[in-house]
Every structure is written in structure tokens, then in C-alpha cells.
Amino acid sequence: MVDSIFEGCSDSCGWLAGIVAALAYGSFGVPIRETKDIDVHPLVFQSYKTITMFMLSWLVIFMGIAPSWTSWGLVSGGLWVVGGTGGVLAIRMAGLAIAVGTWASVMIVINFLVGIVLFQEPVSDMFATLGAFLLLALGLVGMSLYSTPQPVDQPPSTEMTENIGPNQNEVEEIDRALIVKRTSSYTGKIDHRDIQRRNEESGSYGSSADADEPLFTIQTEPKEKDPDQ
């Protein structure tokens, strides 16, 4: 039944199958792009596709098609695994637009040349074909050139610097004072002049608070002695 359908089909079936293949090949990279941040090896990701293909391939038996063996199937499967693994890497590293656009354009050129040179498929207009190749090459270069994000050097925000800078200096001053002054039992005030002197020695400068005002006070309850000792 299936054989009779394909035998009676004209070129329109080939165009329809080509459109379906283009939609499938053009969109199968979307799930790969969505899992970019997941730590999965490309070969493992490719194995998911291979297992799915293996499970679906058994449907031909239920369609009434007799299975046949050819060594070219192994060659095609090996190339498909290599190409699929490289596609996963390309999407993760270069992005979906550049990766799919690049390999789709190169696939067209390779398949066309193999069809003409190896299988001697007829070409109705060679000059129009060469013109199409030229337009394809220009589109590939333009797409790859303008789809690549350009790094933009932006100065840090003034508001962010003003909000973070003083707080960071105060934290550094507090940490430095705690390291120097903290003991097991201590009650007192840390003079700002001592911190300013340490800032000058380390090359960093804190806030411009009044030196007579204490920066902060550390109060720790003295440790009670054990009456048995």
C-alpha cells in the first residue's frame, strides 16, 4: 500500500517532503538551545536522538514495507551521528541562528555538488544555479557577520558606584578593626584615627567622618569563670 502511494507520487510529493524536512531540521535545534545551561555532553544529547530514531524506524514493519540491508545505512548513520554531535556543539557555542544557518547553507552546496558530480543528476540551467550559489554564499556571510553579538564596553554606573563604594569601605574598615582589636573579653571604643592610619598604610581611604567620633563600639560580655577552677 505504501509502496504504491510513493510510486504514484509526482515531484509535488518531493517538494512537500522537502518542506516538512526543512521545518523539522530548522526547529529541532530549539530544544538544544533551551538546554544550553544543562551540563549534558553532546554525545549524550545525540544518543537521545538516535534512540528516538531507532524506536520510530520499526514503524516501517507495521506499514507493510519489507526490511532490507545495505552497508550504506551504517555509513549514513555514522555521518549522521557526527553531524548531529557537531550541531549540538555549534548551537551551544555559536547560537541557534548562526549554527543552523551555516550548516543548512553548507548542506545545500554539498548535496548539490554530490548530486551533480557523483550521481549525474541533470541541471536545467547551470548559470542560474551558479547565481543561486553566489546569493547563498553572500547570505551566509551576511548572516554570520551581523548575527554575532558585538561586545559593548559600558562604563560602570555612577549611581551604583556611589551606592556601593562607601559601604564597601565601611565594611573593610570594620573587618580590619575587628581583626586588630577583637579579644575574648573587650569593652571599649575604636578610635577613627587608628582606622584612618591603617587605611593610609594599606592604601585605602574610608569615609570622611569626624575623627573624634568613634566609628563603632564593640561590647562583649566577659566570660564567666568556672567556680570549680
TrEMBL record:
The keyword Membrane applies. It holds the Pfam family TMEM144. GO terms for molecular function: carbohydrate transmembrane transporter activity. It is a multi-pass membrane protein. Keywords: Membrane, Transmembrane, Transmembrane helix. The chain crosses the membrane at residues 12-30, 51-69, 89-119, 126-146. It is found in: Membrane. Belongs to the TMEM144 family. This is Transmembrane protein. It comes from Phaeodactylum tricornutum (Diatom). The lineage of its organism: Eukaryota, Sar, Stramenopiles, Ochrophyta, Bacillariophyta.
